[in-house]
Amino acid sequence: MSEEILVNVTPQETRVAVVENGVLQEVFIERSNRRGLVGNIYKGKVCRVLPGMQAAFVDIGLERAAFLHAADIAPENGTDETARQESISQLLHEGKTVAVQVIKDPLGTKGARLTTHITIPSRYLVFMPGEKNLGVSQRIEDEAERQRLKDIVLSLCGEEQNDGYIIRTAAEGVDEAALASEVEFLRKLWRSIQERAVTVEPGNVIHEDLPLTLRVLRDLLDSEVEKMRIDSRETYQRVNHFVERFVPELRERIEYYPGERPLFDLYGVEDEIQKALERKVQLKSGGHLVIDQTEAMTTIDVNTGAYVGHRNLEETIFKTNLEAAQAIVRQLRLRNLGGIIIIDFIDMIEEEHKRKVLRALEKSLEKDHAKSYISEVSSLGLVQMTRKRTRESLGHLLCEPCPMCDGRGSIKSAETVCYELFREVIREARQFDAGELLVLASQEVVDLLLDEQSTSLAELETFIGKPIRLQVESLYTQEQYDVVLM
């Protein structure tokens, strides 16, 4: 399996695409004005305790108070079991300051989800201060290698093991020296976090996780990834500096892409992102999926469509469901769908067919980095599953509720259209020789270009060396625009 990571950088946003065998599997987007919070450590102040829910609301300086459940509170003394038996009122009180880590970004109307079980990931290890546990990634299957890594980390911890570690998949085959330097780095980092926690005011960040490009390098660049291509020289140099310092063995796999053609266009990523915002997903066999995201859950319906098979109906249904199982997992990763997911496969009569479809679903999920759990196929042909959700889905990130249909659907936000427009302007300016460019767009998009995005627009003009004129088209919807060469 050939896997590549593509990084597209503009001043406003960074986008990362994971491509396996030429097919887009995952997309990560981070906007400079709205970075994700997962992994950040804050000095929080308890603003409300809810004994009935065994939870508390904590002010960490965000618009909405964050949520902390009793089960996510590390005990100050005693074992975890003791903490679970204690009431939230015994653990926290209003006005108490507490160091907390974000485990789930604010989603929709919900505030961020917090824990006091601090974890600090690095390339090969996850450091868990005060936990005293030692775990190994399940993806390292060789028992001898698991034991070797455990022995190394235990020897590095010394006799008094006061902190815990999880050995990550990337540590497979790594020597003792590399693990030793990482343990030392994590200990120093934790000491600096503890020192900052004392001086910082409540409601402020103590420690911020790495930016998206470096997080991807840390979490996703393993032995299966052949190449990481970056289209920004500045970001490439920053990544190279990081690699030289922490993981020099990856140096050969980091590549700068200087091409005229946009990197995402080269791999067809832009088209795939557009398709991932649609409800309907076509299958090669002629069948299709219909994906609906609601507040409570995501439902996926499998249909045979135009596919009628060659022999009989049962074979047609089985083949469609088998193809759908793989396509569904790709869509879960691509759209970053989480929470409760209900899959309505086409009803199958034969038990063996049901078993094979479920196995195909499980096998495809092995590549997914997010944790998931699948139940059996119910008598109605429904598969209930859960997938861990920590960040906004692709649809929620790129789109907003549609004012034309009272929120029943969605359209791309004016901000998203602006960034698309910027990319289109660069594309047109590179391909054709013109004195100036005229942008035709809706009132909302033009207003944003003249207001919040005016600096970016001015920088773009300087970059392409041509003036850009804006014109409002009253009949255009928010998603419509044209770039005309003058």
Structural description of this entry:
- It is a single chain.
- The protein has 486 residues and is an alpha+beta fold.
- It has 14 helices and 26 strands.
- Strands 4, 5, 6, 7, 8 and 13 form a six-stranded antiparallel sheet that branches.
- Strand 1 and strand 2 form a beta hairpin.
- Helix 3 packs across helix 4, helix 9 runs parallel beside helix 10 and helix 12 packs across helix 13.
- The protein is globular and about 75 Å long.
- About 1% of the residues have low confidence.
Short descriptors:
single chain, 486 residues, alpha+beta, 6-stranded antiparallel β-sheet, 6-stranded mixed β-sheet, 14 helices, 26 strands, 28% strand, globular
Concise description?
With 486 residues, the chain is α+β, with helices and mostly antiparallel strands.
Question: What secondary-structure arrangement, pairings included, does this model have?
Answer:
Layout: E1 3-9, E2 13-20, E3 23-31, E4 41-50, E5 55-59, E6 66-69, H1 80-85, H2 88-91, E7 97-104, E8 113-115, E9 120-121, E10 125-128, E11 134-136, H3 143-157, E12 164-167, H4 176-199, E13 204-207, H5 212-220, E14 225-230, H6 233-246, E15 254-256, H7 263-266, H8 269-275, E16 280-282, E17 288-293, E18 297-303, H9 313-335, E19 339-344, H10 351-365, E20 372-377, E21 382-387, H11 394-398, E22 399-401, E23 410-412, H12 414-431, E24 437-441, H13 443-450, H14 454-464, E25 468-472, E26 481-485
Parallel strand pairs: 1-14, 11-12, 14-15, 18-19, 24-25
Antiparallel strand pairs: 1-2, 2-3, 4-5, 4-7, 4-13, 5-6, 7-8, 9-10, 10-12, 16-17, 17-18, 19-21, 20-21, 22-23, 24-26
Helix pairs in contact: 3-4, 9-10, 12-13
